[in-house]
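Long-time lurker. I teach an intro course on protein structure, and each term I like to show students one example going from raw sequence to a predicted 3D structure in token notation. This year I'd like something fresh instead of my usual example. Would anyone be willing to generate the tokens for the chain below so I can use it in lecture? Attribution to the forum is fine with me.
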Amino acid sequence: MTFQVGDKVIYPNHGLGIVERIEEKTILGTTCGFFHLRIVSNDTTVLVPVANVDGVGLRKAITDDEVERLFSLLGDGKIDNHQNWKGRFKDNSDKMRTGSIYDMADVLKSLTFLSKSKSLSFREKRMLDRAKALIISEISEVIREKALAVEERVDQALEKCFVVKARNMARTAARAKIAKPVKAVVAVEATATRRAAARAS
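-- Reply from a regular --
Happy to contribute to a lecture. Here you go:
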């Protein structure tokens, strides 16, 4: 993927950056192109080799349409949750490394949901804060709204997500209760049929 000066790009785990210039540098006798990125959140400059863009997961910022898709995803009630800390941490770390805002949204949902029922470890709390900050900064830049207003919308979407999740869990539990008596009746009838058949023979 190639970028032009002025493009808004996402550098995984650094957040939103702007391509300020593209130049060639010779290092240890090898000449290569570099993107100079200004990272918006802390106003630092990062150099990314042009040849390594795919390797580091550099991508263009999402569009206005994708912002709406992202809010739908944040509020859809679908939450992945490993009970096992090790498996959960590995999965979430892998998702954060992809740089995909949709993967970060999954991390944000699952860790926020988990934090409502138990205390997160220091590393998970830091990951949760990072996912939220990266999502808010990207949306804020794309739709040109203040970060506080975007954070409010993100929190509302997460609350909706947990309400939908709770409703779905309640429905599943209710269906399971209905299914149990039906299964019991079928089992009793089957036993009675077998006994009747045994008596007849």
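Some talking points for your students: The longest helix spans residues 147-200. The chain has two domains: 8-60, 64-161.
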